[in-house]
UniProtKB/TrEMBL annotation:
<dbReference type="Pfam" id="PF20009">
    <property type="entry name" value="GEVED"/>
</dbReference>
<protein>
    <recommendedName>
        <fullName>GEVED domain-containing protein</fullName>
    </recommendedName>
</protein>
<dbReference type="InterPro" id="IPR045474">
    <property type="entry name" value="GEVED"/>
</dbReference>
<feature type="domain" description="GEVED">
    <location>
        <begin position="47"/>
        <end position="124"/>
    </location>
</feature>
Length: 227
């Protein structure tokens, strides 16, 4: 069933069997600015995306700016980095929703049947001016390797960095208050190392601007493979 966390179509959020595991938002969404998606696919296909910028509850055709690609974006197997523009007149409140569909059909609506593929819904945040991003120095690691994690905030911010492991467990890597600018997790005493469990992990950063009170969250993946 639909719910406010966009988990109505999710079998087990942040679990080893999580089916919402193909899209990450490593940058914040700011009206009039470019944002980035990271998408992982198991085969070549077509990627479709919608964001409910005015939070009226749908992504209907009379709002073409809410469709990210027209009609879709062809993707290669593996990780794909996608840039898109957030409309200048995006007027959603702090929280809204995105829907993504992937499959072999070049044209799909935001709802309805498809011959194959997957649908994933995500809860997202928009802040008028709050610039935030997170990234690792690589995408693939062997067990035991150090993972260098960088992040950026443009306000004095309260942040929490959470690791969601491939085995379905989660833990807080670091939490605290930071000044504006680019930061390294290790500079704050945090340690991130690839574990022996192979699979895709997600690093999530939840952050609040102390001057404005606006909150957002960004995510980035990395993969642990067998040596």
């Amino acid at each position: 069933q639909p719910n406010d966390e966009a988990l109505g179509d999710d079998i087990r959020p942040w679990s080893v069997r999580d089916d919402e595991d193909g899209v990450w938002f490593p940058t914040s969404l700011i009206p009039g600015r470019q944002a980035i998606l990271i998408v992982d696919t198991s085969e070549e296909g077509f990627f479709h995306g919608w964001i409910d910028y005015d939070e009226n509850g749908d992504w209907k055709g009379q709002e073409p700016e809410e469709r990210l690609f027209s009609p879709s974006l062809p993707l290669q197997k593996g990780f794909n980095w996608i840039a898109f523009e957030v409309p200048e007149d995006a007027n959603a409140p702090e929280t809204s929703y995105a829907r993504f569909r992937f499959g072999r059909q070049e044209t799909l609506a935001y709802a309805g049947e498809a011959r194959n593929g997957e649908v994933e819904d995500y809860r997202i945040a928009l802040c008028p001016t709050y610039d935030v991003w997170i990234m690792t120095d690589d995408i693939v690691y062997y067990p035991g390797e150090d993972v260098s994690l960088s992040f950026y905030v443009d306000d004095v911010s309260q942040i929490e960095i959470i690791r969601h492991r491939a085995d379905g467990t989660s833990s807080v890597l670091w939490a605290g208050t930071v000044e504006p600018g680019r930061q390294e997790l290790r500079d704050h005493g945090g340690v991130l190392r690839a574990l022996s469990v192979v699979g895709t992990e997600t690093i999530e950063m939840i952050t609040t601007s102390l001057p404005t009170g606006c909150s957002t969250w960004v995510t980035t993946p990395f993969v642990v493979v067998e040596p």
